[in-house]
Amino acid sequence: MNPDILRERQNATFDIEKLTNILDGGAERTNRRREIREVLVLNDPDFDYGTPTSLPTMILKLREYGISDPVEINWYKSMYWGTGREALGLHYVMFLPTLYTQCDSEQFNKWVPLIIGTYAQTEMGHGTHLRGLETTATFDPATQEFVMHSPTVTSIKWWPGGRNPLFLPLIFLSIPLSASLFDLFLSGFALPTCSGIVIGDIGPKFGFDAVDNGYLKLEHVRIPRENMLMKYAQVKPDGSYVKPLSSKLTYGTMVFIRSLIVGNAGIVLSQCCTIAIRYSAVRHQSEIRAGEAEPQILDYQTQQHKLFPLLATAYAFLFAGQYMIDTYNRISGDINQGDLSEMPELHALSAGLKAFTTWTANTGIEVCRMSCGGHGYSRSSALPDIYVEFTPSCTYEGENTVMMLQTARFLMKSYRQVQAGQQLSGAVSYLNKVHHRVMAPQAVSSQLDLNLNTLVDLYEIRAAMLVELAAQSIQQESARGKCQEDSWNNSTIDLVRASDAHCHYMVLKMFRDKVDQIEDPGVHSVMSTLAHLYAIHGMGNFTGDFLQAGVLTGAQVPSVSKCLKGLLAEVRPSAVLLVDAFDHHDKMLNSVLGRHDGNVYEAMFEWARSSPLNRTEVHESFHKHLKPLQAKL
Ligand SMILES: CCCCCCCCCCCC(=O)SCCNC(=O)CCNC(=O)[C@H](O)C(C)(C)COP(=O)(O)OP(=O)(O)OC[C@H]1O[C@@H](n2cnc3c(N)ncnc32)[C@H](O)[C@@H]1OP(=O)(O)O
Ligand SMILES: Cc1cc2nc3c(=O)[nH]c(=O)nc-3n(C[C@H](O)[C@H](O)[C@H](O)COP(=O)(O)OP(=O)(O)OC[C@H]3O[C@@H](n4cnc5c(N)ncnc54)[C@H](O)[C@@H]3O)c2cc1C
């Protein structure tokens, strides 16, 4: 064990195992996760971490071990695939959930156990604007079939992930059977027998290489009427159409994935913080006091300023992810029972948090990489690969700006309800105070009040102010004679800013609520420090908002920075222990810099020597290209 890392793990002020249990949702869950990891994967003789793992083996193993709980499947898969992407991830996270939520019982029993599929919604011309999709589905009562057709080049289905050219069960979204409705179809056709289908791969991408993203062009392809997923909407044999309770029920799978992505952003950020903080504990560089030994780079204040707010953010997003999936499960259960009353709130929350967490984590991964200097740029650190795999999450499953605007739509609607005298409940209930001017700037003491509850209140006031400013911008545009749509478009910068502040407040509130539930004094203390750091760091980044909201005075601004520096110093002794609590196994992290034992340099030399480029003393290219050239000179 590297002596620095060893020293960092002495004098712990909190019980790491208890913090790991909190992250897992209890000691039993931690034990089960480790059992799956150690016994069912790492100690499985059929599992050789070095060789490309096969999907069929994984599926057969899941069946052999009787693992069917979605969380446990995820634990098994994340150990099996490490930080990489699995080839058929889309089957699990989109195709199956769509069948589960959109099939009627007959279809469910017929299809679910049998097929592997993809989700073909996006077209070359439209990914965001679903009401603009062009693929048509025309019902032919004579043959009881739908005729699927791609009328234009922009209607070609583009991006479906995991679309193996050999088979093609896929979920379609096609243009409206009626004014504003979409429907989902299971293709049911298989290649190459089916004529009228042009299929292929969209070509090399930035990353995401484990997943083959394809294209699909349909030329009047016929599928049985029964292939329309008919839980919510039906087309009867006579061609009559039964509308769903809400046209947005078709969007359900996207809301599910967005809810999952929130916690995933926390996991990915926790992986990168583990790598960067462990490496910063063993890396010595330059000098602080002339003539003294080179310090650990983790002792530089700038290095702490780069990494510790991200560490706090990783914990914040992991807790937000737990809250998000609990809320999704609760409300989707109600929707299943026909109660759609909270569907708008679920959409607004999942859309906003998906955008907020992925944008922040995306930037954070790069900060972690750069904080490791040159070795961060080496694939041995795992950081470049983590970035390449994570960054499309800002685009897929709802492009982030568009998602923030969806949340803004809900905030504006809520604001108008408050103005009309309605009493709001749920995540936007803080807007009730805006109307009664309870949100007038509080008398803020000369010193910054560090109480976490006060900080949450300040974030609430900031969010409410920005919601009101966005609403006022729309009103001003309208007053200038702009139509409603132009007034909206001319206010979208303010609207995104309001949504971002709303999400920031929600995440801090969830973090504070989680800390309040922690009973162990040591764990409560260290998590309270991290929650303060998360809040103060955000106040430092958005000082203008807090000044504008009147909850921070110019005289107090220096104390924000002073307080931040104090919190960084407070976190320093626990930094390595806090990433140990994430409990990422070396095999899963797959990072020379993030090793639990901290023996970075020896491992890096071994990693480099094992490179295919070093398989021979002299690379074959010398004999093939340079030597013949030399002979001619
Ligand atoms: C571990 C993880 C690994 C994750 C790893 C997994 C890998 C994933 C790979 C990527 C897979 C994909 O990308 S699959 C493709 C993903 N594609 C998308 O996400 C498409 C994004 N676009 C959309 O969702 C939609 O077009 C919208 C929401 C932007 C706009 O929809 P629209 O129908 O035009 O609605 P719009 O006019 O804006 O609003 C009309 C009303 O509908 C409401 N509304 C809109 N959507 C919804 C909704 N979902 N639920 C409830 N209500 C909704 C609005 O709030 C509004 O209410 P009111 O204000 O009138 O009351
Ligand atoms: C790695 C990866 C995997 C994918 N896998 C799948 C898959 O399996 N199945 C599938 O169906 N799709 C998949 N997609 C497609 C993905 O869902 C779309 O790319 C995504 O929804 C964004 O849509 P778009 O590409 O049309 O971008 P656009 O919407 O064209 O975005 C371009 C720009 O326009 C802006 N913009 C668009 N609309 C508005 C608006 N109303 N207001 C303000 N600005 C706006 C956006 O903010 C953005 O800056 C995948 C994409 C990627 C990158």
From TrEMBL:
It catalyses: dodecanoyl-CoA + O2 = (2E)-dodecenoyl-CoA + H2O2; (5Z,8Z,11Z,14Z,17Z)-eicosapentaenoyl-CoA + O2 = (2E,5Z,8Z,11Z,14Z,17Z)-eicosahexaenoyl-CoA + H2O2; decanoyl-CoA + O2 = (2E)-decenoyl-CoA + H2O2; octadecanoyl-CoA + O2 = (2E)-octadecenoyl-CoA + H2O2. Gene3D superfamilies: Acyl-CoA dehydrogenase/oxidase, N-terminal domain, Butyryl-CoA Dehydrogenase, subunit A, domain 2, Butyryl-CoA Dehydrogenase, subunit A, domain 3. Its cofactor is FAD. Signal peptide: none annotated. Residues 451-629 form the Acyl-CoA oxidase C-terminal domain. Pathway: Lipid metabolism; peroxisomal fatty acid beta-oxidation. Residues 58-115 form the Acyl-coenzyme A oxidase N-terminal domain. The active site is at E397. Residues 251-412 form the Acyl-CoA oxidase C-alpha1 domain. The keyword Cell membrane does not apply. SUPFAM superfamilies: Acyl-CoA dehydrogenase C-terminal domain-like, Acyl-CoA dehydrogenase NM domain-like. FAD binds at T122, G161. InterPro entries: ACOX_C_alpha1 (IPR055060), Acyl-CoA_ox_N (IPR029320), Acyl-CoA_Oxase/DH_mid-dom_sf (IPR046373), Acyl-CoA_oxidase (IPR012258), Acyl-CoA_oxidase_C (IPR002655), AcylCo_DH-like_C (IPR036250), AcylCoA_DH/ox_N_sf (IPR037069), AcylCoA_DH/oxidase_NM_dom_sf (IPR009100). One of its GO terms (biological process) is lipid homeostasis. Keywords: FAD, Fatty acid metabolism, Flavoprotein, Lipid metabolism, Oxidoreductase, Peroxisome. PANTHER family: ELECTRON TRANSPORT OXIDOREDUCTASE, PEROXISOMAL ACYL-COENZYME A OXIDASE 1. Belongs to the acyl-CoA oxidase family. This is Acyl-coenzyme A oxidase. It comes from Gadus morhua (Atlantic cod). The gene is ACOX1.
